Amino acid sequence: MHDTACDTCATDDEEHILPTVEALTAGTLALMTGYAQSASDCPHRGLMARKLVSNLFFLSEHPHVSPLMRTMLANLRTRWQLAAEAAPTARPDRRPSPLWHAAPDHVQ
Q: What is the domain partition of the chain in residue ranges?
């Protein structure tokens, strides 16, 4: 037997579910804050800027966004694209770590 009252209770507990456009906007603003607060030599700034460009693209193409907002988001995306291109790319740190194991000479 399926209890719909329990289903209703379970969905009422999820207060932080946002519509897609609002969740993407909130994530984009949080990422912009992280970018602004990071050090200029942070190796992740380029990755954050590229993710911002991606988020702004999806926001500017979202069906629930007004045409004027789409234009503004497209302009922002262009500015962030310049920042993404100017930022150094994150390179993996390949220095040996005491937690790394040496590669075996041969595999059985």
A: 18-86
